Amino acid sequence: MIVGHYAAALVPYAKLEGRPLWLLLVCANVPEFLWLALALCGVEPTQPASLLDATFSNLEVHMTYSHNLIPGIVQGVIVFAIVQAIWRDRALALWCGALTIVHVLCDVFVGFKHELLGPHSPQISLDTYGRMPQVAIAIELAFALACIHYFLRSEARHGRPLSNDRRAALYAVFVIGILAWLSATVMPLRELLQRTGF
Predict the structure, then answer these.
(1) Could you list the residue range(s) of the whole structural domain that residue 190 is in?
(2) Does pLDDT of 61 surpass 80?
(3) Which of 14, 25, 79, 104 could cysteine-pair with 154, CB 3.0–4.6 Å?
């Protein structure tokens, strides 16, 4: 998943009144931030080197430390410990750690190849981005819509219903953000920009 991970943060945000949404959003994407840092350092190299030239079919990624299951669980434990040490809020820390682990679990269904521990350990993912990216995007969209629906219902139950404009904006951010990746299933962004005259 790409954008859908952010939607996962809406679930605990609905349950943890008054807790910072930004923190939940960050924790839901710790593996992604770690991957970007490791890719820039050459530890988890990505080909092609430019996002502008990448499609789901030609993208080769090795996410050994950022997205494999056991490293993902370790990240979740570290996130839990950091949040607990800073905020002294066990519920918030548990949710933050869980969001980090859920990121990796979601990528088992919607993502590239991920293993249990390292490159030679058992593969645990479906590699939907590599094998059927349009289906992967549809699953990600359904997941995000379910998270949004849960959040909106929870807010309404607690007497904090969102206005129609805010609801529409929330749906638009995720629907557009996810469907924007459809073009990358067939052509690189650079080619798309050239065809559209940018």
Answers:
(1) 4-195
(2) yes
(3) 14
